[in-house]
Amino acid sequence: MTYLAGLLSKVFHRTPILTAAILVPISASAQWTVYDPANYVENVLHYTHQLVQIRYQVQQLNAQLQAMRKLASPPWRDIRVTESALNAAMQQGNALTYVLRNAGQQFGNTFPVNRQITDWPTEEQNQNGRTVATMRATLNANQAQNSTIPTGLDRLTQMKAAVGQVQGHEQALELQNTATVFNGEELMLLRQAVMAQSNAQAVYFGSQANAEIQRDASIRNTMAGFAATPPTPADESLEVQP
User: Fold this and answer.
1) How many other β-carbons are positioned within 10 Å of the β-carbon of residue 60?
2) Residue 185 class from Cβ within 10 Å (0-12 exposed, 13-18 middle, 19+ buried)?
3) 57, 118, 234, 242: least surrounded by Cβ within 10 Å?
4) Could you tell me if 135 and 200 are in contact, meaning their C-beta atoms sit under 8 angstroms apart?
5) Helix and strand numbers, DSSP H then E, in the chain
6) What is the DSSP string of 117-179?
7) 99-150 pLDDT, tens per residue?
8) Is the whole-model pTM more than 0.85?
9) CB-CB contact of 9 with 15 (8 Å)
C-alpha cells in the first residue's frame, strides 16, 4: 500500500489527498469492511492511468496556448507622416514637381521649346529659378528620407531580437508579416526617392534642352527676317508743283 501511495504521488501532485482517501477504511455501523487486494490494485492502476492522461492533456493545452500567443510588442511603424513630409518638401518654393496637379502643363509653359524668345531676361529668370527650386526641393526630400533611417534601423534591431524569442507558430507568422510590411514600406519610400530623382532629372535636362532649342528658334526667326526681300518702295516724284 505504501508503494502504491508513492506511485500516485509521483503521477499527480495532489494525489496524496486521493491516496489518503483510498487508504482510510470507511466505517459503517453493523458492517464488516471487505478488502479485495486484486480489485484495489486494479482500481489504483486505472486511476493512475487517468491521471497520466490528464497530465498529458494539460501539457497539450499549454502548448496550444503558447502556440496561439501573439508578440508582446510587434515592431510596427507608420510612414504616413514621412510621406506627408516628403510631399511637403517637394512643394516648396517655385519647384516644378510631380506633386503639382498640372505639372505637365506648367512644364510646357516654363520650357516652350520652339517658341521664340520675346522677353529674354524674364524668361531666363523664370526657367532658371524653377530649375534650381526643383533641385532644392529634391534635396529637402532626401533630407526627410534620411531622417527615417534611425527609425528603420531600430525596427530591424527589434525584429532580429524577436527571432530568438519566438515561441509558437502564431508569433513566427506575426514576425514574418511584420517583416513583409516593413519591406513594403521600404519599397514605398524607395519609390518616392526614385520619383524625386526622375523629377529633378526631367526638369534639369528640360531646362538644358529648352535653352538650346528656344535660342535656335529665336535666331532662325531673326535670320529669316534678315533674308526676307524688303518691299519695293513706291516711286516718289521730286517735281515741284506750281
Assistant:
1) 10
2) buried
3) 242
4) yes
5) 8, 0
6) PSSHHHHHHHHHHHHHHHHHHHHHHHHHHHTTHHHHHHHHHHHHHHHTT--SHHHHHHHHHHH
7) 998 999 999 999 988 777 778 788 889 999 999 999 999 999 999 999 888 9
8) no
9) yes
Contact between 189 and 148 under an 8 Å Cβ cutoff? The reply is yes
- Cβ-based neighbours of 111, under 8 Å, separated by 6 or more: 127, 206, 207, 209, 210, 214
Cα separation, 139 vs 93, in Å, equals 13
Q: What is the CA radius of gyration of the chain?
A: 44
Res 63: pLDDT: 65
Q: Angle, to 10 degrees, between the axis of helix 120-146 and the axis of helix 103-110?
A: 140
pLDDT tens profile 114-127: 777 778 788 889 99
CA distance 81 to 238: 85
List the end-to-end C-alpha distance of the chain, in Å, as a whole number: 166
Q: Which of 124, 125, 122, 129 is nearest to 93 (CA)?
A: 129
